[in-house]
Amino acid sequence: MSAYVVSRPIWRRFRPRYLARAAAHVRAGGHAAIVLPEERIDLLLSVDEAGKLTELGQWALLSIEQQRFRRVSEGPARGLATARVKRQYEGSVLDWCERDSVHPGTIRALSLDCLACGACCHDANVVLDGDDLARWRGAGRGDLAGRAYVRRARDGKITLRFAASGRCQHLGDDLRCAIYELRPDNCRAFVVGSEACLSAREETLGIRDGAPAEAELDEAEA
Ligand code: SF4
Ligand code: SF4
C-alpha cells in the first residue's frame, strides 16, 4: 500500500502570556511554539501516559537536531513536553507555524501517496549499519555494499551513494525502491507525514502543505 492518510499536528505560535491556550492546542493534538520575549523559542509537545513523545513529535525534534526534552512541572502546560529550540533552527520552527497558518484546528488529515512522490529518496543522508550490510550479504547482494552504491568516510561512516542528480540509485522510474525488501533500516524507519517527509516534498517537489514560505511571498510581490 502506498497511499496513507496521516493525521498530522498543526503548528501554532504563541506568546508566553497565552500559555494556557498553547497547552490546550497541544492537548487537542497540535504542536506549539512559545516565542519568548528575547525571541527564543520553546516547543510544547504532547506525551502519552508513559511520558513518551508521539512519533510525529519525535520526528519534529529530529528535524531540528534536538535530542532532549523535559516535562513541564507546573502551570497550565504541566505534564507536556518542552524543549528549547537551537538558534539555527528557530527559523524552521517559525516556518512550520507560517505554513500551518492556513489550516484550521489542531490536527490535519493529509493524504500522501509514496508511489507518486519519492521525495525522501533524494538528497538524503542514509547512514548504513552492520545490520544493513549483513542483510545484503545474506541475500547474496554483497554488491550493494560496493563503491558504486555506498560511500565510506574516513571515520568509518558508511552511507548510500546518491546519483549526481540527487536521486537514490535504487529509486526506479516508477518511484518504487528497487531493493525494497533489503532497504536500509534508516529507510524503513522514515515516517510518512513527519516534518522530514513534508520538508523532502517541499524541497524536492516544491509541494508545500500550507501557506507559501516568506521567500516565495517576497518573490510573488516583487
Ligand atoms: S516524502 Fe513522504 S510521501 Fe514522499 S515518498 Fe517519502 S514518506 Fe512517502
Ligand atoms: S534505498 Fe530505497 S527507500 Fe532508501 S532512499 Fe533508496 S530508493 Fe529510497
UniProtKB/TrEMBL annotation:
Organism per entry: Sorangium cellulosum
UniProt superkingdom: Bacteria
Xref: InterPro entries: Puta_zinc/iron-chelating_dom
Protein name listed in UniProt: YkgJ family cysteine cluster protein
